[in-house]
Amino acid sequence: MPDAARFPRTPLSVLDLAHVRSGGAIAEAFRNTVDLARHAESLGYKRFWLAEHHNIPGIASAATSVLIGHVAEATKTIRVGSGGIMLPNHAPLVIAEQFGTLETLYPGRIDLGLGRAPGGDASAARALRTRSSDEFPALVEELRRYLGPRQPTPAVAAYPGTDSNIPIWLLGSSLFSAALAAELGLPFAFASHFQPQHLLEALDLYRRSFRPSQVLDRPYTMAGVPVIAAEDNDEARRIATSAQQASLNLIRNHPGLLPAPLASPDHLDWNNFERAVVEARMAAAIVGDRERVRQGLQLFLDETHVDELMIVTAAYDHAARLRSYEIVAQALESTAPSEAPTLK
Length: 344
Known about the structure:
14% strand; 41% helix; 8-stranded parallel barrel; 11 helices; alpha/beta
């Protein structure tokens, strides 16, 4: 294990879905998102990403580019971006223009993470006119051309967007995007916060297959980690019942607002199959007090050797979520990261 004093701590970032809680409202969710971004910035978090989801009442980050601009305007130094934009839902030119605009307004602070799923159910995909995920590699290449160096005589160019060279990440929960990110020499983020089963396999494939590019000379990896940190383990487990209920509702095909926590995990009303599915989806979750979180993060880093951690915290009470991110930042101070390549 490297000496912790040799390198700065593993970079921490935030993934937010602008959760709308039961009894709350979308406007409240947006206020909480901005407040969390400012809080994360003050704690030294590197990035604040927002995820595109559709047709889910409890997630208000559907207009992802718009919300990124709102957060970037309210902050000063933290990088703000998408985790991710679901590219098959959009024309690459439109995304290039949107993110070219964001980069012009907030230079050097915008990230563009791309996914290939629709970010919603089949009905939402039809309404969005979502294209096949098989087209994803071609869509990525088209988008990169729009954001890349200015071409002498382009048939179509993104204004703004061209020559902005906004950092592009590929996101995934399977091997497909890992292989594509390796082939293109792009940074790769794995969605282990909701689909951890193929995490190690995907990271291994990405690292083994990586081709150096003008973007990166060696692999750069990030992983989403669901964390609920609190003053004691029982309180953390109580807070975590909101995320467990939300996951259970998705399994039952009844997505709704983020539920209030239960008095205890023992009060969760699920059968054995549902419990197994929820626990599989949350297998990477770290729930507990500062020491348990510290141990969990260190174990995760030891197993994955990722270069950056993206913390995902779904808590009904906003103050509890802010405190959780504080505890995570404190806990990670004593972990021992590996040396990582430089990435904006």
